Amino acid sequence: MKKLLTALMLLASFGVMADPQMGKDFDRTAQTIATDTPDKIEVIELFWYGCGHCHQMEAPLNAWVKKLPADVVFKRVPGLPHQAWAPMAKAYYAMETLGVLEKLHAPLFEAIHKQKSLIPTNEKAVIDWITKQAGLDRKKVEDAFGSFSTNASVNRAANIFRASGATGVPSLIINSQFITSSTMAGNNYAALSTADYIITNIRADKARATAPAKK
User: Fold this and answer.
1) pLDDT tens track for 4-63
2) Is 215 contained in some domain?
3) What total number of domains does the chain contain?
4) Which of 85, 114, 141, 209 has the least CB density, counted as fewest CB within 10 Å?
């Protein structure tokens, strides 16, 4: 017990146990972002399949998402700071439309970063890859890439990225108001811990707002 207390004191002295700080570990989004689930605390990951840091975030993020409480909802939004990233944003929404997103999300990361068999800015190659991996007709995949629904979703993703004020990926938007990232917080695990801190405080604010006034 004494050793544990000593270790905790040492961690605290290095600032490891300090609460995340606004303006350092997280910040407000540039604009408030409309949420699809106003009755819950929404967490959005901005990511890009071509990003090595996003690939590294997958394991800790997936483990974190599995433990989220019922009042928190998580979703991914492709990061789209410029047009070169558009093929991967289209890939995400096309796979969603085709019903193969859950099956191919992780393998697409692997194809780019481990197997080095796919260039993420090459839309034709991405379409070929999805066609082969999903066992679908290529025309069907092409149609999903070029659909009105996919283009509308890609435009919305670009607007979310812009409104968030993100400077890179992976970034986490919490409750449409706050943003953190591995760069801001220090690493992927610190970013997730920072998200937990923000979620806890938002939940407490909601509880205070709905609590009956004391007589």
Assistant:
1) 334 434 444 444 458 999 999 999 999 999 888 889 999 999 999 999 999 999 999 999
2) no
3) 1
4) 209
Residue 2 lies in a domain: no
Length in residues, the chain: 215
Q: Which of 17, 59, 42 is nearest to 170 (CA)?
A: 59
Cα end-to-end span (Å), the chain: 45
The answer to whether position 31 is within a domain reads no
Please give the residue range of the domain that contains residue 100.
41-209
Domain membership of residue 20 (yes or no) is no
Give the integer Cα–Cα distance in Å for 113 and 118: 8
Place of tokens 């901005």: 46
Let me know if 39 is exposed, middle or buried by CB neighbors in 10 A (0-12, 13-18, 19+).
Answer: exposed
- Let me know: does 128 contact 87? Beta carbons within 8 Å: no
Q: Take residue 170 and report the two structure tokens written for it.
A: 């992976």
Give me the CATH number covering residue 105.
Answer: 3.40.30.10
Burial class (CB in 10 A: 0-12, 13-18, 19+), 202: middle
